[in-house]
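Figure 6 in text form: structure in, sequence out.
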């Protein structure tokens, strides 16, 4: 069941055949690549809120020049630590969240 999409238009869905995990379906390869995002919709919501709060915190504490390149690793590492406690499976190396937050 599709619940949204990423910035490139690839669907984000609930995999009802796999314990209702949240997954990303890559439209660039005709949906053959399916990437695990979170173990549940609740954990997905928590991760979205954590990401939003990290960005808000960085924008309130840093100057525009400091944010020009990317959000500093200290902010990312802080949110990664919390995410790892909320849904350890979602924080595997090469996973969706480390990649997505790494681009901020």
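Output sequence:
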């Amino acid at each position: 069941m599709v619940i949204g999409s990423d910035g490139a238009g690839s669907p984000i869905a609930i995999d009802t055949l796999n314990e209702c995990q949240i997954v990303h379906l890559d439209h660039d390869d005709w949906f053959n690549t399916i990437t695990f995002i979170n173990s549940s919709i609740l954990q997905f919501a928590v991760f979205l809120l954590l990401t939003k709060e990290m960005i808000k915190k960085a924008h309130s504490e840093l100057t525009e020049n400091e944010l020009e390149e990317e959000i500093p690793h200290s902010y990312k590492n802080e949110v990664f630590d919390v995410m790892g406690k909320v849904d350890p499976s979602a924080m595997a190396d090469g996973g969706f969240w480390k990649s997505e937050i790494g681009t901020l």
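Caption detail: The longest helix spans residues 41-61.
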